[in-house]
Amino acid sequence: MQGFFEHQYLTYKKNHLRNLLALAKSDSHMHEKEVELLFKIGHKYGLKDWQIQNLIDESEKFELNVPDNFNDRMNLLYDLVLMVWADGVVEKREINFFEEVAQKFKMDKKVVPFLLKVFDNGTPPPADEWIEIKREAKEKFELK
């Protein structure tokens, strides 16, 4: 039996993947590289293959779940950038989706080209640099 906090954390992890799925499914087609990335991120969060597959198979349209704090929002943006770069092609619809997410996160949409440049060709920055990037993004792009 799951305790209350375990259930909440599981919901948080699933919502994180649902947010990524909203981007992946925004063109009604999921590239195999996007699916691979979803499994990789799901595994990072401790989800089992069947849990990830169930999320992928859900037919409902996902509503964006806005994380409670800036750090969680930036970590979701981190995974969204990876998803944008997953198939090696950055499409206009992905940029539009990403800008909408940034605005819902109460951030200037200029954070999108900033993060795309940081993740040049889909290569994420090292963990110690990501901490500094989050600080810089908070100063430059968080709307007050």
The value of Rg in angstroms is 15 Å
Fraction of residues in helix: 55-70%
The N- and C-terminal alpha carbons lie at a distance of 42 Å
Q: What class, by secondary structure content? A: mainly alpha
Give the CATH architecture: Orthogonal Bundle
Biggest sheet descriptor: none
Strand fraction equals: under 5%
Order of helices and strands: HHHHHHH
What is the fold named in CATH at topology level? TerB-like
Q: How many DSSP helices? A: 7
Unreliably modeled segments: none
Keywords:
single chain; TerB-like; 0% strand; mainly alpha; 66% helix; 144 residues
What does this structure look like?
The protein is mostly helical. The chain has a single domain, classed as TerB-like (Orthogonal Bundle). It has seven helices and no strands. It has helices at 4-24, 32-44, 49-57, 70-85, 92-104, 111-118, 127-141. Helix 4 runs antiparallel to helix 5 (92-104). The protein is globular, with a radius of gyration of 15 Å. The N and C termini lie far apart (42 Å).
Write the layout of secondary structure elements.
Blueprint: H1 4-24, H2 32-44, H3 49-57, H4 70-85, H5 92-104, H6 111-118, H7 127-141
Helix pairs in contact: 1-2, 1-4, 2-3, 4-5
Produce a short descriptive summary.
This protein is mainly alpha-helical and 144 residues long. It has one domain: TerB-like (Orthogonal Bundle). The protein contains seven helices and no strands.
